[in-house]
Amino acid sequence: MSRYRGPRLKIIRRSKNLPGLTGKTINLQKARLDTDQFSSGKLSQFRVRLEAKQRLRFNHGLTECQLPKYVRIARKAKGSTGEVPLQLLEMRPDNIIFQSGMAATIPAARQLVNHRHVLVNDCVTDIPSYPCKPKDVITIRNHSIHSYGLEGRIRSTRNEKIPNHLAFSVLEGDGPKGLVNGFPNRESIGLDINELLVVEYHSREA
Hints:
Layout: H1 8-15, H2 28-38, H3 45-60, H4 66-76, H5 83-90, H6 93-99, H7 106-114, E1 118-120, E2 123-124, E3 137-140, H8 142-147, H9 151-157, E4 166-170, E5 176-180, H10 195-203
Antiparallel strand pairs: 1-2, 1-3, 3-5, 4-5
């Protein structure tokens, strides 16, 4: 299945606020009442796991084929099977650009990467899923800042809170830079989700 490109508010009304998908928020109390009108009885465990998987997929703009790959990698890696997929997603350049404040959403950051406006360690990359590593430096080209009207966004980023595993800087005569300090821990991942439900959902496919 391809990446979701439909109405974003429709998704967050059903899946609650997703900061990576859109900066808009909804009234959670009203959304809960709307959801209750269409659901009755006890939620099945399958539905609970499905909704957790969909929240993660929509927030990061993944296809149905991409998320299971991260889960399979996590099963073979050291550490928490639930936390490793989140760490891998956080280390993608599109997510680093978003978390550093250089783009308003992950889809906007992905567009910058796809259009070759992003450098990783001074090398152009057009692969949003490229696995970044600690000490990597992600930069947006100077001419791209003006082309996409990012000046105001970058100025406001200086006053925003950046996750602990990232650093953001703007040098005179140079483009904005995001530095990867290390792998993120669970506390620095802003998305409110139970990652174990995602792993449990995909375990039935194994």
